[in-house]
Amino acid sequence: MFQEVLSRLGLRDTQSGVCAGDWVAKPGGGEIVSTNPATGDVLGRVRAAARGDYDRVVASAHETFLKWRLVPAPERGQVIRSLGDALRRKKQDLGLLVTLETGKIRSEGEGEVQEMIDMCDFAVGLSRQLYGLTIASERPSHRMFEQWHPLGPVGVVTAFNFPVAVWAWNAAVAAVGGDTVVWKPSARTPLSAVAVEHIVQKVFADAGHPGVFSLCVGGKDVAQWMADDPRLPLFSATGSCAMGRALSPRVAARLGRTLLELGGNNAAIVTETAELDLAVRAIVFGAVGTAGQRCTSLRRLFVHESIADALLDRLVRAYRSVPLGNPWEDGVLLGPLISREAVEAMQTALGELVAQGGQVVYGGAPVNRPGHFALPAIALARADMPIVARETFAPILYVIRYKSLDEAIAWHNQVEQGLSSAIFTDSLRQAEVFLSPAGSDCGIANVNIGTSGAEIGGAFGGEKATGGGREAGSDAWKAYMRRQTCTVNYGRELPLSQGVRFDVSS
Ligand code: UN1
């Protein structure tokens, strides 16, 4: 069954991980093996890019950019519309491949492709809305305005947990903005990237614009080449804070632009007025969904002391009922973690929690079956424990009791990351305090919705150590274009701004 899906997506046993026009990887870049985290089976092998392959890909992306930037934006949008249509036709197959490579459940695998389709739809509309402002000039017979121009080839680095959607957040917007894209996917999920690239190459070749989206599969070295490369004016990366700390100074050293979407240590506050049925469902989806491997996953839960015991009972019951298994099977809600190392990191974190005075009240242990499974954990913790301040990319939920909302908000904001946040409350006052300037310090703040599962229409990203970047909807497109302020003098005088006099006779 899986072999058929792989071949429908154009994947062979071993394929090139380098695609841009006609370039193929030459032996020498090494081989990346993709495995199914639910079984440990090898799914396929991809030849990684060597430095020479990378250089040719970027040179080709630059050459294509020089032409693509001159194609009218609405026409660029039409190619993205065709891409959305192609993805609609491949939704089941590509969704299943995402499931096989990441271990996320089927509806989430397909949901990711839906997120790509949504991004294409959004970008088609955007292609007619790349508006600039007209600004009142202080000088007579002058017109001042802003226009937005294509920026150049964009380097995009994505993580294993959203192997295709996050590329689409960047790529769809960059392409209608007139940029080309060079993509380095996670080395854990190269097949999903190659499959996307096959779909893309056909759509763009049919439209007569090949080479707009290219792919460079590889490890950290490829990401470093990109960070250092002045041919890529924008470096957009999703990954850990450690990755951001390592790469962002390299981009800064060449005064390039970064768009960073790094770690999250997302929290929810459940107040004494919360509707618990709703809160429990949202908490379990946020903490257990995707095996706790979203950057928006819920990791810290602040619960008002008056409802803490009742909520904990319900959470433990809900956790017990979560069906664990092969993520492609119907009814399963919890698949594996991505790797053995991820299961070990979870064990280490729980060990530290106990050493710091915390207590695991449910789950946490690895599951004795093939693949990298672990039971999701609920742990009692205190806000000042070092382990609570750290993002462990695994399904661990730290539950912390609070007395006053001010105290909960202070604890909520005391970690270095600032991605997503939520409050569960039926009190308008509590909700508004959470959303006020003195409330959540995150890029995303929700009321009666969990921390994960954002729609593409909003700008996605976070503050502080999360990196400050914004991707996907709203006006995130501005990061992918260059702003030009233009002033035109249609008079016969030369008045200077700020009333400066500089009269010369000629
Ligand atoms: C991520 O984990 O990198 O909001 C992105 C969400 C998804 C995206 C997560 N739409 O959970």
Question: Can you give a write-up of this model?
Answer:
With 506 residues, this protein is an alpha/beta fold. The protein has two domains: 2-32 and 44-262 and 467-485, 3-Layer(aba) Sandwich (Aldehyde Dehydrogenase, Chain A, domain 1), CATH 3.40.605.10; 266-459, Aldehyde Dehydrogenase, Chain A, domain 2. Helix content is 36%, strand content 20%. It contains 14 helices and 23 strands. It has helices at 2-8, 51-68, 73-89, 91-102, 106-126, 165-176, 190-206, 220-228, 241-253, 276-288, 308-320, 340-355, 405-412, 428-435; strands at 14-16, 18-19, 31-35, 42-47, 134-135, 142-150, 154-157, 181-184, 213-216, 234-238, 257-261, 266-270, 298-304, 359-362, 377-380, 396-402, 417-418, 420-424, 444-447, 459-460, 463-464, 471-472, 481-489. The strands form six sheets. It has a seven-stranded mixed sheet, with helices on both faces. Bound molecules: 2-aminohexanedioic acid (UN1). 2-aminohexanedioic acid binds at residues 159, 161-162, 166, 238, 294-296, 452-454.
Task: Provide a brief overview of the structure.
The protein is α/β, with parallel strands linked by helices and 506 residues long.
